[in-house]
User: Fold these one by one.
Assistant:
Number 1:
Amino acid sequence: MYNSKITGLGFYVPDNIVTNDDLSKMMDTNDEWIQERTGIKQRHWIKEGSNETSSTMGAKAAERAIEKSGLTKDDIDFIIFATLSPDYYFPGCGVQIQDMLEMDTVGALDIRNQCSGFVYALSTADQFIKTGMYKNILVIGSEYHSNGLDKTTRGRGVSVIFGDGAGACVLSRTEDNNKGILSSHLHSQGKYADKLIVTSPSIKHWVPEIINAEEEDISYFPYMDGTFVFKNAVVRFSEVIMEALAANQMQSTDIDLFIPHQANLRIAQYIQHKFKLKDDQVYNNIMNYGNTTAASIIIALSEASEKGLVKENDIVLLAAFGSGFTWGSVLIRW
Ligand code: UT7
């Protein structure tokens, strides 16, 4: 069995910054409410009319990650792409990356696990490397939320949270068994699928029906029971962190850097407090990017790495919770 370690990181966000004040011109909201309830100050949204999508942003992040890894695209054996906002209903974004980066005909897999998408994607890549099937896997998380949000007062409980962006890493085989991904832990509870969901388009409610829909048909906008999701998030985050620590006989004091999925600063602060983590043990950047779902952890990890906050031998913990419900964690020795 081999181990896998991250050898290159990169992220990309669209230039267009949307502040809370900008949102208050579209809907009945305000900077004070958004900052107090979520910690978000601004997010990046693809400009209307732009050709950018989840796959184009993912391709840019991927190019940066490959460059940082010191490899070339010809060294990549497999692509894993996590998103809830694919360019098409099918095919997925993974094959578009293969084409955009003019890569060899390597396999490409799309992961549909929303906020936990990157954790699921990284864990999946780790398994392919552990068994020896692949040496270098490109793992991408990317989201184009802004075009699918209800930007009226009706949608304010959801729309102010989400941002667009992409992050990527190259996960590579290492023969050093003390380095890289130590363990990953994945869970789901489909019973609560309807608590954070987009129900259309679906095979049950297809596009012609939506086009002719009444204005009050909001089935194609994300629905979230925010309070219920919040309450479950803090419980599941805690469980899956404890699971990762227990599996590796570690304590929270062993964590050098915890990067939670950037869902809400209040969730991250609750977890920080619960595990008695110091400020320099936790990295948050939701203030600047909002919640970028499958991209959030990998954007944060890339940014933290660029700032020199991730050092050799550091214990790095990633954890996520979101729609599905799905949740998971990955523990890494850098
Ligand atoms: O990333 C995937 C997982 N997602 C999450 O983990 C998100 C979890 N949930 C949350 O982060 C929070 O529940 C929210 C940030 C979404 C909402 O915060 P909240 O503290 O749960 O607020 P609420 O939904 O209970 O709403 C409180 C009030 C309501 O008004 P009334 O009924 O008390 O008069 C809402 O209508 O705030 C109102 N409200 C807003 N006001 C101004 C809701 N959204 C807004 C808004 N601006 N954008």
Note: The mean pLDDT is 96.
Number 2:
Amino acid sequence: MKTAGGSDAAKRRAGERAAQDVTDGAVVGLGTGSTTAYAIEALGRAVDDGLEIRGIPTSFQSRQLALEVGIELTTLDAVDGVDLAIDGADQVADDPDTTGYGALIKGGGAAHTREKLVDAAADRFVVVADPSKLAGTLERSVPIEVIPDAHTVVADRLRELGGEPTLREAEGKDGPVVTDNGNLVLDCAFGPIDDPDSLATRLARLPGVVEHGLFVDLADVTYVGTDDGVETREY
Ligand code: 5RP
């Protein structure tokens, strides 16, 4: 369920802009995905130049990349707080006249459980995106991580909520995607999501749901890389 589209140049601009917000001594949440990867690489170069930071990865992928580029790693339970988290999104609600302005759909990389944990713990959550991620109303399928025993029961409850769930299938492996936490992912289409907060509350209540990919009232800023610069949305 990764988002297609979005130029690499735009992603790079967004990621590198976010890395500029990281100051010496910071504890940094390291999100997942191709846009955040540009931020992690930029932080690696800054570390080579003397920046001292500790990173908290949100997935196997971001941990591997952070190790490759030489970022010292830590964990949530070993720090007093997280200064800033940088993370991508599959869709960003971009209409300032709606209540869901700045809400996100995440989980295209099936990493949204740890991403939400780390992003929500940060004093400042910086989203990095390209213009293909912006939407007036969120409407992509919402990734929902479930414990394996729960997938059929949760799918039934999601249909009762008006959704159309699909168990995410793996590529390069038979059977379903298994998350870094050993769970499964249902991608649930709801059509246009006019009230992300209300849907988020209903999803969080379902037994067997570990975490869903609606991020409401969490982002502080989105950097949108474009063909020739970076646009900023402050929330
Ligand atoms: C992973 C995510 C990613 O941040 C999201 O899929 C965006 O990825 P990309 O920057 O590659 O488009 O939520 O779970």
Note: The chain has two domains: 2-137+216-228, 142-212.
